[in-house]
Each structure stands twice: as structure tokens, then as C-alpha cells.
Amino acid sequence: MEEYPEIESFVECSAKSLKNISEMFYYAQKAVLHPIAPIYIADKQDLTEGCKIALTRIFRVCDLDNDGFLNDEELNEFQKRCFDLPLRKKAMEEVKEIIRRHITGGVSHNNCITLKGFLYLHCLFVQRGRSHTTWTVLRKFGYNDHLDLSKDYRFPQVKVPRGSSTELSHRGAEFFKRLFNKYDKDKDGALSEVELAEMFKICPRVWGTNIQNIVPTNAKEWITQQGFLCFWTLTTVSDLQKTFEYLAYFGYPINECENQLSAIQVTREKKLDLLKKQSTRNVYQCHVIGTKGVGKSTVCRRLIDHTFERIKKDTSGIPQKTINMVTVYGQEKYLIMKDIEVGNVMDPLEPSDLKCDVVCLVYDTVNPKSFEYVARIYLKYFDDGKIPVLFVCNKSDLIPEIRQDYLVTPSAFCDAHNLAPPHRHTCTDVGTKEIYHKLATMAAFPHLTELSLLSSDSILWKAGLGIAFVAAIGLVVSKLMKHESILNTIFYSFSFEDLDTADFSFINT
């Protein structure tokens, strides 16, 4: 054993007398299941570098308040997560006393365990022949025999039916909120570069330097909590595996009974939304289509409150997507605006360009040829009515409007196809959100894409009808209260599912 340090144990045994046979199998099994070589260097009597990196990540994940220490509550949560048992107060104090006796700086002045003490504790486990304890901790946090996060741990299997999408569940959103608050040390509602660097110490950085052009940020271009949730919402829709991977990195509670699947939800198929005449999704994708120069990218960037002056000065390149929260009848939804690149006006759209919840067709009020392109796109791809469409007359502040080189005017075209009239939009207006509310509402109620959905007068009219209808029901019910048998007959034959859900949404608003 002195000559070959990779030999972990030595047992004298006898098959004839059965001496130490059970011990031999025990140590053989232990050498396979809990090998010492990947986690401990016998010559240096210290943990390997890979083991220290893994345990450091585990320490940071368990440090829920991000103060650099593990207090009693955090230690108890760590114990329950790894060993399914709480740590008794007496045992906790004994552990701290052992650390104090052997090293300085292992326990803080406020009686909490430091990273140095946490690493020493595991070194002590290995030295005393309890490598299985350290391996139990490592495997509970997803590490394999090579001290890498295993593929199964990072990427759980999930089946997403065609026509469905993936969103963060309530648990997933709450986890990312807690993660944001954990690293927002100064509690200013945004993550500075220093705070972001602290967050990404335990994993690779997930976004580049252009994050401020994708999600909401503050005046210093630091990502806000809303922007943070927007980013992970966008990632969950477009790259679910990346969300799974970073949930694992950040320490989402994964065990034998639960994995990252509880952090996401798979929406029902879109054809069912059309059948039910209402979408149950919380995230809607809008594709912005138009010729070059009509202001598509500016429309996308205004979603995240970028001023027109800022957009004009931006020379770093404009991303294809932006995302922000939009209110639809009192409910918070996420709207993703994607700028569809147009090379040649005669080029067809790609199949991926047609996979969205609502379409924004943009033309330029001062470009007489811009409407012809979006009209042709509508007739070729969206005339079947399966995807809601809104025409947008951009740069409407430039007066007078130039006549479009097309057979009919944009308003007449929309009337002929039972569409709302073109929405007049200007990117120089500060704080205007009407266009995004319209798009999100059209995505939420895909069967109401005609004029009545977007006209404010018709909304009031429809709301009045809904209120009158409910009042009439109430009057009838009150008159029938004295006739219980008749009332039971009425309610058994009446179903609220027969009503248009949009009618009641106006009342709720």
C-alpha cells in the first residue's frame, strides 16, 4: 500500500475459515461506489481540486441568504436535502466544535460555518473512512464519478406535443425570484455587474453583453427583477434544455421524487385553444414582418421602453427578439416580439416564421411600396384566419401620409378581410403601450381578431351587453328562488361553458 497509493484498503481474509469475507466485499463495494481517488489526495492529505470546486458550488447553493456562511437553518436544510433527516441541535454544535478544534476560521464569530470549515469537514470525513458521506452529498447535487454534473441531472426527459409550448410554472418563477433577491445584496431591484459575477461563480454566464437590448433594464442598464424573469421566460420558450441546465446549476430542489419538470409547464395544443376560443398560455410570441427600413426593430425595442433616441444611437447591433410583461384584462402575460429578417421581398417565409401566436405586419407611412409587401404576405400565409394579424402603420407622426402603391388603400384592404383598421404607431411617443396590449389581447383571444376586439367603442358595447346579460340572469334567478324545483331544473340544463369567455373578461376588467 505504501508503494501503490491508489490502493484504498487492505484486508486479510480466508475463504476456508470465512475470516473477513464480509469485510472484503464491503470494502470492494465501497471502492467502486465511493472511490477516494477522485475526491482525495493521500500524499497531500487534502481534497482534490475538482472536489473543492464541486463542494464550493454546493456551499453557495445552500447559502440561501448569500452572506458567505451556513447558519443553523441553512445547515439543517442541507442535512435534510442530502440525508432526509434534520440535524439535531446537539449534533450541530458538536460538528462546529470539531471544526474549531482543528482549524482556525472554520466557524465565524456569529457561530456559522464558513466555506473553509465546510471543506475541512468533508476532508475529515474521507480521512476517517467515511468517503460515502461526501459522495452522498456530491450525488445529491448531481455529480457523477468524474465530478461533473451528470446529463440526467441537468436534462430531464420531457415530451412537448406538437403545437404546445413550454413556460415557467409558478414554482419555477418563484425560484428565479428568490434567486434574484438572493444576489441583489443592495436591494435596489437590479443586479449590478458585481452581483452578476457573484451569481455566475457557480456556473457559466448564460447571457452576453447585449442583454439590455432584449429585456427590461434600469437606467444603468442593469437587469431588473422583471427583466430577469423575462429572460428565463424567453429561454424556457426558445431553449428549454438551457433552462433545465441552469435550474440544476442554481440548485433547484432535485431529488428522487422531483426534478426540474416541476419548474415548467407544457401548454395545451394550440388547436385546442382555437377550439375553446381562448388561450390558456401566459407567454405569447409575436412575429414582426415588413420590408427593410419600416421600423420593425424599433417597434420591438419600444416594448422594453427604449427611447427612439437611444435606438438611433445604438451601434452594437439589434437582436431579433425582445420580451416584456403586458397586461391583458388585469392578468400579467409575457409578449415576445421577434423581428423577422427579410432579405429579398420575393423570398418566401420560412416555416419557423409562421409559428407564432400573433402577427404584426408593419408598413411605412412614407414608403409607398411598403404596404404591398405585407399585403402579399397576408394573402399568401395568413388569410386563413388561423393566426391573428394586426397591420401597423409605422412613422405615423410624419404627416401627410403618402398614398400606397397598391390596388386598394390599407383601410379598405383591412375592411375587405374583416380585420381591424391599421394601427397608427409612432416610435417617438414615450410610454405608449397600446400596440402591445392589442397584440397580446389578440393572441389571448384568437377568435376575436375582427374590428370588435380592438375598437374601444365595441369593447364598451360588449361589456355593457355582458353586464346586462348577467343582470338579466340575476333577475330571473331571484324570481325563481321561491320555486326550488324549477330553479334546480334551470341550473341542471344551463352550462356556463356555452358562454363566450371573452364576454366575462370585460366584466372582470
Give the helices and strands, then pairings.
Blueprint: H1 21-33, E1 40-41, E2 46-47, H2 49-62, H3 72-83, H4 89-102, H5 115-127, H6 131-140, H7 151-154, E3 166-168, H8 170-183, E4 190-191, H9 193-199, E5 223-224, H10 225-238, H11 240-249, E6 264-266, H12 270-276, E7 283-289, H13 296-302, H14 308-313, E8 321-328, E9 331-339, E10 358-364, H15 370-382, E11 389-394, H16 410-416, E12 423-424, H17 434-444, H18 451-454, H19 456-480, H20 484-493, H21 501-508
Parallel strand pairs: 7-9, 7-10, 10-11, 11-12
Antiparallel strand pairs: 1-2, 3-6, 4-5, 8-9
On the 0 to 100 scale, the average pLDDT is 84
- Biggest β-sheet: strands ordered side by side in the sheet: 8-9-7-10-11-12
Shape, please? elongated
Q: What value does the Rg take, in angstroms?
A: 31 Å
Determine the fraction of residues in helical runs and give it as a percent range. Answer: 40-55%
Give the oligomeric state: single chain
Please report the number of helical segments: 21
Strand content: 5-15%
From the N-terminal CA to the C-terminal CA, the straight-line distance is: 78 Å
Structural class: alpha/beta
Report the count of strand segments. Answer: 12
Main pleated sheet: 6 strands, mixed
Please mark out the parts with pLDDT under 50 across 5 or more consecutive residues, or reply none: 454-465, 482-509
GO molecular function: calcium ion binding; GTP binding; GTPase activity
Protein name: Mitochondrial Rho GTPase
InterPro entries: EF-hand-dom_pair (IPR011992), EF_Hand_1_Ca_BS (IPR018247), EF_hand_assoc_1 (IPR013566), EF_hand_assoc_2 (IPR013567), EF_hand_dom (IPR002048), Miro-EF-hand_domain (IPR052266), MIRO_dom (IPR020860), P-loop_NTPase (IPR027417)
Domain EF-hand: 171-206
